[in-house]
Design brief:
It comes from Pedosphaera parvula (strain Ellin514). This is Sulfatase. The protein is α/β, with parallel strands linked by helices. The protein has a single domain, classed as Alkaline Phosphatase, subunit A, CATH 3.40.720. Helices cover 34% and strands 14% of the residues. Strands 1, 4, 5, 6, 7, 8, 11, 12 and 15 form a nine-stranded mixed beta sheet that branches. A two-stranded antiparallel ribbon has the order 2-3. It has a two-stranded antiparallel sheet with strand order 9-10. Strand 13 and strand 14 form a beta hairpin. The longest helix has 25 residues. The N and C termini lie far apart (62 Å).
Length: 483
């Protein structure tokens, strides 16, 4: 090998490593045909997972994860605590707090006044689940939902807490849950990514980094692909202006040959990952516009999901897209709805948030059930932590705020083999700590993987000399919530 050849290889590797940062970047450079590589000794791994078959029979085929970024107040939504109303304004007892650390946002307050919810609660359905007046549509689903009221986490601030939920670690760099599922099970739709992401527009109050749906140290084919509202749902997917399909085809064929040679020379598996991304991008040029076009949905769909569902990029519109992606067997569909970080002005803020999501969540569950999809689709709703039982800042009869609270909070699940009309775990009368059946973040992750037929202890990847998994060295499947 002469010096010029070495320089050529290094320059190409540097170019691709910097340019093909994601599916969008890969698609801008090239959209490769599947048959290009069949004869070029570069195997197609775009559809395959590392597991030939699941570890055991799955209850769910796919997941729709409705992530409420910012930390919804469980005390104003699902965890009814009449004692807080009775003792409203009294200082949080030291015997309840027990020296637990607080954030810098409320830790320096001279008092921590208990804040009862100003919203009315009632029991719903045969299950008798407590739901506040903020969620009248969700209340209708009481007998479809499995409430987990004893979630707890280790992180007290947003970024590490969200990262922990999505990747199993508070530190950046680990693969996200959707990436692990793609790595383990692969894709069941050759024309769409196994892992897609939708973010509600106009609700960002905390940053959401692309690493939250990244592949970490897994091959890059497993990273999540963000779908956006607007002209270009996936960035750089379309051919650049002035490039004809024929000329693009010829260039891509030659590029495929070069990739095959590079793979034979270097043996770098990321070359094949890049190839798989190009292939998928090519197929997505027709599949993405189709799935994103909700104009052909009947009027009854928009009536079910609410008027905001006609507004692309809203949570309601994204819920329709989630159903459409589920119909096409996308493995992991992640919706982020930010805006739940109510340190002050909670009553007004949470009213707005609930208006965004309440009817849309009801519609999604109802729609999936009507289409026979809920049985094998696991829907998860929740945030990165809960909110405090005391007020951050001034407490008035009509207004209060709540700080971050990792010790206890609520999420719900539906479909996918979990018990409907069931509540699991309890918190104390003050809504401050878990008193029965605690569920850690790793327990929830282990349970989600279990429903897709994966033993969370066996789905591992060796990186830098040790084996990693989503749940690290922790996690127990919460068998009590499984149907």
């Amino acid at each position: 090998m002469n010096c010029s050849h070495v320089n050529f290889q290094m320059n190409r590797r540097d170019f691709f490593s910097k340019f093909a940062l994601g599916l969008g970047g890969a698609a801008l450079f090239g959209l490769l045909r599947k048959d290009t590589f069949a004869s070029a000794s570069a195997p197609d791994h775009s559809l395959k997972g590392i597991l030939d078959v699941p570890h055991f029979a799955p209850k769910a085929k796919r997941i729709i994860y409705l992530f409420m970024s910012g930390g919804p107040s469980q005390l104003d939504l699902f965890d009814y605590k009449p004692l807080l109303n009775k003792r409203n304004g009294e200082d949080l007892p030291a015997s309840v707090r027990m020296g637990q650390r607080l954030t810098g946002m409320s830790g320096n307050q001279s008092t921590l006044p208990l804040a009862g919810s100003i919203f009315n609660f009632a029991q719903h359905g045969q299950s008798g689940a407590w739901v506040s007046e903020l969620m009248p549509w969700t209340a209708k689903l009481a007998d479809e939902l499995c409430f987990i009221k004893s979630l707890h986490t280790e992180a007290i601030n947003h970024d590490p807490a969200i990262t922990f939920f999505q990747t199993g670690s508070q530190l950046p760099g680990r693969p996200s849950m959707g990436a692990w599922l793609s790595y383990g099970l692969g894709s069941t739709n050759q024309n769409l990514p196994a892992f897609t992401v939708l973010i509600s527009k106009d609700r960002i109050d905390q940053p959401l980094y692309a690493r939250l749906w990244g592949n970490g140290f897994l091959p890059s084919t497993h990273q999540g692909v963000q779908f956006r509202s607007g002209k270009d749902p996936v960035l750089y997917l379309a051919n650049p202006d002035g490039i004809s399909g024929q000329s693009r085809r010829k260039m891509l064929d030659k590029l495929g040959e070069l990739h095959a040679l590079q793979f034979q020379d270097l043996g770098d598996p990321e070359i094949n990952s890049r190839v798989a991304q190009y292939e998928l991008a090519y197929r997505m040029q027709t599949s993405v516009p189709d799935v994103m076009d909700i104009s052909r949905e009947p009027a009854s769909t928009f009536e079910l999901y609410g008027t905001e569902s006609k507004n692309p990029g809203t949570f309601a519109a994204n819920c329709i897209l989630a159903r459409r992606l589920a119909e096409r067997d996308v493995r992991f569909i992640q919706l982020y709805h930010p805006g739940w970080d109510h340190h002050g002005g909670l009553p007004a803020g949470i009213r707005r948030q609930c208006k965004d999501v309440d009817q849309a969540c009801y519609a999604l569950i109802t729609d999936l059930k009507q289409r026979g999809l809920l049985e094998d689709t696991l829907v998860v709703w929740g945030g990165e932590f809960g909110r405090t039982n005391y007020s951050q800042g001034k407490l008035t009869p009509t207004d209060y705020g709540r700080d971050h609270h990792p010790r206890c909070f609520t999420a719900w699940m539906a479909g996918g083999g979990v018990k409907p009309g069931f509540s699991y775990g309890t918190t104390d009368d003050y809504g401050y700590s878990v008193t029965e059946n605690p569920v850690h973040v790793h327990d929830l992750q282990a349970t989600i993987l279990h429903q897709l037929g994966i033993d969370h202890e066996k789905l591992t990847y060796k990186f830098q000399g040790r084996y990693y998994r989503l749940t690290d060295v922790h996690g127990e499947v919460v068998k009590s919530i499984l149907a």
